[in-house]
Amino acid sequence: MTDATVAAGDKIRCDACPVMCYIKPGAAGACDRYANHDGELVRVDPHIVLERTVSHGGRLVPFQAGGDWDGKLVHEPSVFVTAIGAGTTYPDYKPAPFIVSSEVDGVDMVTVVTEGIFSYCGVKVKIDTDRYLGPETATVRAEGEAIGHVTTSEYGSQMLSLGGVHHLTGGSKKEGRVTCDALMDLSNCKPVELTIDGGATVVVQAGRPPIVNGMAEERMRVGCGSATIGMFAKQWHGKVDEVVVVDDHITGVLSEHQAGKLLDIPDTGIKMKGRRSTPGRYFQVADPGTGWGGTNISDPLSVLGPFNAKEARPGLTMLMVSTTGEHAAYYELDEALRPVEKQMPPDLQFSVERIQENCEPALCTVLFMGGAGGSLRAGVTDNPVRLTRSVKDALTRVTSGGAPVYVWPGGGITFMVDVTQMPAGAFGYVPTPALVAPIEFTLKLSDYAALGGHMDHVRPLASLRENSEFRPMPYIPGRRA
Q1: CA-closest candidate to residue 188, choices 438, 363, 381
Q2: How far apart are the first and last CA of the chain?
Q3: What is the pLDDT of residue 229?
Q4: Which of 87, 253, 372, 429 makes an SS bond possible with 413, Cβ 3.0 to 4.6 Å?
Q5: What pTM did the predictor assign?
Q6: How buried is residue 154: exposed, middle or buried, by Cβ count under 10 Å (0-12/13-18/19+)?
Q7: DSSP string spanning 406-450?
Q8: Are strands 98-104 and 458-460 parallel, antiparallel or unpaired?
Q9: pLDDT-based confidence at 476, cuts 50/70/90?
Q10: Backbone region of residue 152 per phi and psi (left: phi > 0; alpha: psi in -120 to 50; beta: other values)
Q11: Which helix (H) or strand (E) holds 452?
């Protein structure tokens, strides 16, 4: 409940965000988060307080990894006050909705919680797949609207950067609305269909496998083609003369690779297309795509030139395999030194299955990223820069919905959080448009006083039990609907 409302006839005006809705009795505002209940402005969702427990067999989100605690960093209490359902500090100068004191191992602590209104926010998406999703910097769209772009690939994963203030506020009204909707759904672990200019359509859902062009991914790559050679060269030794691991980035060739040289595997006369890097490592053997090893090929022989007759011989055997083991084929050279596909020998089939076994399950990872600016910091202290310094000095612990966050170095409080570690429905929105996300600051009570904190608004933890919802909080990966 907030006390800063203005009546307009039988309506009341909500001041929880810049939209400033007039809400009639029995109705909710544009964000569906605040409502007019008998002339009082109330928060629709309950305030969530977590009771950490292992009684349900789940893995708890750790607040500190082992060792004795000296009071400088936050120790995990049995009860933790989150900002989910707490309300906001808008228009910025108001103290945070809940500033709660408690005692942890004999140390007086305080947790300051607020739901932040984030115009400067977005999500970083990691998609475990070798499939080509689109060129770097390509625009990513939802419902036809630009909401982000493709960024640099990582090892076995494609990366997207979505949202940000320019998409939320710098384009059309529809672009801002669609961006906000997509960010909120992704952050709440719901599926979102994205299309990439010049690339694929992909359904992303945190904690679930990606669906690329209608096909669900099962595994990410075991490594690049060169790494795969290094990992399995010994298992191929004596079973096959040549192995080519097809990869969009670095295709590996066993006989030329250092791993093959150390095993005394003789030259085979193989000729690879693409650009040779170091021995046994080739770049650009094919264009990117959704075929073998993240290339655009369906016939692996298309990456080969003619075998060198001075080194090759009829009957020479060759295994061609992708970095996930999804694609594999076995060949023998005929009298004209042309590869002819044959049935895969059982020991080579076993090695292909071993590659598959060593591939981790394909998942989508969504990290919410936001900048905690003036409104958040002013709700904690009347001298906001002191909060920033306290966070940098590790005197203040930052969490989001009780989950640990990574705070970026440098100025401000820019943080990232894995959304799968947060309680369901932790994110909301306001139609400015902006996302609403929970953020908590926990520190020693004495340090809070030194910050210039709002000491006259500190309340004991016991005072929350009447108006808050206490929830056990085991962590169960992929539990969202």
Answers
A1: 438
A2: 29
A3: 96
A4: 372
A5: 0.83
A6: exposed
A7: EEPSSSSEEEEEEGGGSPTT--EEETTTEEEEEEEEEEEHHHHHH
A8: parallel
A9: very low
A10: beta
A11: none
Between strands 6-8 and 11-13, the pairing is: antiparallel
| Residues contacting 149, CB < 8 A, separation 6+ | 137, 138, 139, 140, 160, 161
Closest CA to 102 of 137, 68, 75: 75
The two tokens of residue 444 are: 């020693």
Greater confidence (91 vs 405) lies with 405
349: which 2 tokens? 């089939």
Answer yes or no: are the C-beta atoms of 253 and 229 closer than 8 Å: yes
Helix ranges (H only) for 205-264 are 225-236, 258-262
d(CA 150, CA 290): 16
| Length of the chain counted residue by residue | 481
What is the model's pLDDT at position 57? 42
Do residues 471 and 422 lie in contact, with contact meaning Cβ atoms separated by under 8 Å? no
Helices (H), ranges, 101-209: 165-169, 173-187
DSSP secondary structure letters along 277-320 = -STTEEE-SS-BSSSGGGBS-S-GGGGB-PPPTTT--TT-EEEE
Q: 458-460 and 434-444 as β-strands: parallel, antiparallel, unpaired?
A: unpaired
Question: What does the block give as tokens for 412?
Answer: 């401000």
CA distance 277 to 112: 55
Cα distances (angstroms) measured from residue 346 to each of 86, 233, 299, 343: 61, 17, 22, 9
- Residues 9, 451: Cα–Cα separation, whole Å: 42
* Residues in a beta bridge with 175: none
Whether the per-residue pLDDT at 90 is higher than 70: the answer is yes
pLDDT (average), residues 81-103: 82
ω into 477 cis (within 30 of 0)? no
The answer to whether residues 364 and 126 touch, using CB atoms and an 8 Å cutoff, is yes
CA–CA–CA angle 466, 471, 474 (5° rounding): 160
- What dihedral do alpha carbons 92, 164, 180, 84 form, nearest 10°? -50
Task: Provide the 3-class DSSP secondary structure of residue 122.
Answer: strand
